[in-house]
Specification:
This protein has 21 helices and twelve strands. The structure holds alpha-D-glucopyranose (GLC).
C-alpha cells in the first residue's frame, strides 16, 4: 500500500522528454530526482537534468521537496518506510548517510573510481560499511556576509570576534534607522527550531572552544562553561541587533532581509553570494565575505560543515540509469558550472584552482581553509541517533534564544536528555 502516492505524484512538477529517436530503444528510463528547493536549487536541477536527458534519451522528472532539511528527511524516511519507488535519485544532506544507509544503493559499481577526485573526508562520510552510498555534489560552510559599503560608511572594520560583530552591527543599525530605514537590522541568521539552528549554534559553541555537543569518542560534552558563554552571547543579540523574528528564520528568510538591503551582517552558506550579487539584488557589488568571528579574543574561527550528495534509492526500478544521472550531476563539468553560476562549492579540490571558478567566487580562494577545516556536526559519533541528538540540541538552544530558559539550565537539561537518547551507546 502506498498511502502517499497521490500527494507524492503531485509533487512531480516537471518532466523533460528527449526525442524518441535519440533514445534508440523503447526501454528509455524515466528517472525521478529530488535536488533541493533553496535559492537556485530547482533551476539548476532543471537545467542539468535536461542536459542528461538529452544526452542519454532518458526522461527526468523533478520531485519538489520542502526547503528545510529537517522536513526533507522526514519526508524521505516516510517514503523509505513504504519502500516507495516514486523517487530514484535523492539529495542527501552531509549528516544523513548513517541515518538512511539501509535505503541507498552502493554506487561503487558505477563510479569507476572517480570519487578519488573528491575531498576524501566527504567520500569517507558517504562511505558506510565499505559501500559508497552517495556521491559528493557540493560542500557548504557557514560564512559571515557583510555590507562592505556600510562598514566603510560608519568607519568600522570587518569584525574578527562576535563581540566586535555585535558592536559594529549596533553602530550601523542605529545609523541606518536614524537615517530613516526603521526596519534595518544589525545581524540576521538562522534561529528557527530546525537543523539550521544546530549548524549556527555548533559554530557559536565551537568558536568559544566549547566543543561539539558529543565528541569523537561519543561522550556528551555540551554542558560546559564555554558553551554557556556562547549561547548567552547569541541570546544577547535577539531584540538588540537581530529582530525577534529571527527565531523563525531559516536560510532563505535571512537572505531575503539581507538581499533587500535591510541588514548589516548575515550568517549564511555560500549560495547567498551568487544571489546577493545577482541582477535582482539591491546589494549587488556591496557584499563582503569573511570567516565567522571568533568567540572572544581567545576563541577560534569555526564554520559548520554542510553540503549535499546525490544517491540512488534502493527501491528504484532503474538503478543503472539513476546512477548514471548521479555520476553526471556530480561530475567536474557540472560542478564547475554550478560553482560559476550559483556559488555552490565544488567537492573536487582541482576546481578551487580554476580561474573562472575563482573569478566568480574570489572567497573560494581566500577562504579555502574555511571550507577544508569546517567542523562536522556529531553525525558520525551518534550514527542513526543523530536526528534525535540534533533536535534536542536545537530545541535547547531555541529555549535560550527565546528567553524561556537560561543557558545554564538548558544545557544541563540537554545533557540529561542526550543521555536518555544515548541509552548506554550510540
Ligand atoms: C545547508 C547545509 C546542510 C545543512 C542545512 C541546514 O543546506 O548544506 O548541510 O544541514 O543547510 O539548514
Amino acid at each position: 500500500m502506498k498511502p502517499n502516492s497521490r500527494s507524492l505524484a503531485a509533487r512531480t512538477a516537471l518532466a523533460f522528454t528527449a526525442p524518441l529517436w535519440l533514445a534508440g530503444a523503447a526501454q528509455a528510463a524515466t528517472i525521478t530526482i529530488s535536488c533541493g528547493s533553496v535559492g537556485q536549487d530547482f533551476e539548476f536541477c532543471k537545467q542539468t537534468t535536461a542536459e542528461w536527458a538529452k544526452k542519454t534519451g532518458n526522461e527526468v522528472k523533478l520531485f519538489t521537496i520542502p526547503n528545510s532539511t529537517t522536513d526533507i528527511l522526514a519526508l524521505f524516511r516516510q517514503m523509505f518506510a513504504a519502500k516507495s519507488t516514486d523517487l530514484d535519485v535523492i539529495n542527501v544532506d552531509v549528516v544523513w548517510p548513517g541515518v538512511i544507509k539501509d535505503h541507498l544503493l552502493d554506487l561503487k559499481p558505477y563510479s569507476k573510481g572517480v570519487e578519488k577526485d573528491h575531498f576524501p573526508a566527504i567520500v569517507a562520510n558517504n562511505t558506510v560499511d565499505g559501500k559508497l552510498l552517495a556521491m559528493p555534489w557540493f560542500t557548504d560552510a557557514g560564512l559571515l556576509f557583510y555590507r562592505k559599503d556600510l562598514v566603510e560608511k560608519y568607519k568600522q572594520k570587518p569584525p574578527t570576534t562576535w563581540e566586535e560583530m555585535a558592536a559594529t552591527a549596533k553602530v550601523i543599525q542605529d545609523g541606518e534607522r536614524a537615517a530613516g530605514n526603521k526596519d534595518f537590522q544589525g545581524f540576521v541568521f538562522q534561529a528557527k527550531a530546525y537543523e539550521g539552528l544546530t549548524c549556527d549554534a555548533v559554530e557559536w559553541i565551537h568558536s568559544y572552544k566549547g566543543g561539539n555537543i558529543v565528541n569523537d569518542k561519543g561522550e556528551i560534552t555540551v554542558n560546559n562553561p564555554n558553551a554557556v558563554k556562547a549561547l548567552k552571547t547569541a541570546a544577547s543579540w535577539i531584540g538588540t541587533i537581530a529582530p525577534q523574528g529571527v527565531l523563525n528564520y531559516a536560510e532563505e528568510e535571512a537572505r531575503g532581509v539581507f538581499q533587500n538591503g535591510n541588514a548589516a551582517f548575515m550568517r549564511n552558506w555560500p549560495y547567498a553570494w551568487s544571489l546577493g550579487n545577482g541582477k535582482d539584488s539591491k546589494i549587488a557589488g556591496k557584499i563582503g565575505v569573511s570567516a565567522l568571528p571568533k568567540g572572544g579574543a581567545d576563541g577560534q574561527n569555526a564554520a559548520t560543515l554542510g553540503g549535499w550528495q546525490l544517491a540512488v534509492s534502493k527501491y528504484s526500478k532503474n538503478p543503472a540509469a539513476a546512477a548514471d544521472l548521479v555520476m553526471y550531476m556530480t561530475s567536474a563539468e557540472v560542478q564547475k558550472m554550478r560553482a560559476i553560476k550559483g556559488s555552490y562549492n565544488p567537492t573536487i579540490a582541482a576546481l578551487y584552482k580554476d580561474k573562472e571558478v575563482l573569478d566568480a567566487n574570489p572567497f573560494f580562494g581566500s577562504l579555502y581553509s574555511v571550507f577544508t577545516s569546517a567542523v562536522p556536526r556529531p553525525a558520525t559519533a551518534t550514527g542513526a541517533k543523530y536526528p534525535e541528538v540534533s533536535a534536542a540540541f536545537w530545541n535547547a538552544t531555541h529555549d535560550v534564544l527565546s528567553g524561556q530558559a537560561t543557558a545554564e539550565d538548558s544545557l544541563k537539561k540537554l545533557e540529561g536528555k542526550l543521555k536518555q537518547v544515548q541509552r548506554g551507546k550510540w
